[in-house]
Amino acid sequence: MTTTLRRTARSLAAGVTLLLSLTLVQGLGGGTAVAAPAAVRIVYYDASQAQEFKAAVDEGAAAWNKAVRNVQLKPATGGTAAVRVYADNGWPRTYQNGFGRGTVYMGREAVNDGFYPPRIATHELGHILGLPDNRNGRCDYLMSGHSSPTSCQSTIPHATEAAQVERNAGGVAAVLARETSYADCFVF
User: Fold this and answer.
1) Of residues 59, 124, 161, 166, which has the active-site annotation?
2) From CA 154, how far away is CA 15, in angstroms rounded?
3) Catalytic annotation present for 59
4) How confident is the model at residue 37 (pLDDT cuts 50, 70, 90)?
């Protein structure tokens, strides 16, 4: 009986070691298993007052939805919108009131200067998701804003921007608590 007990204990220890090893490897990105997704936060937006920019706003939302897993931007139904999007003749700007809440103005001045409306919308929605401007001039970063050339038409969030949004959506207190304005995104 002692030999059987030892074999069982060794088998059990080997199984636990194997399980822990696989968990560690997968946790470090070496495994092929996908971690269970975090709860998805839904951010409802109302672009009914965005006039000619409504399709651009929907395209911007779709770009973020494709880039991040734990937050999704969806058109509002009824009075459920936490984000309101308007068109006006000024510069594009965002007034954020915590993560996933605020007001976006799709300003025509930037479009008149040659900036691409879907990129503007994706950029402004990035502010709603807690991202600041970075003004690095690179087309592959949405949050470069007006510092990228007017020829830039990329609406794909950079991997670092998407990762930051996922962290923000996970409940970072600093992002949830602050109220921020991004009024000069495309002003020179």
Assistant:
1) 124
2) 49
3) no
4) low
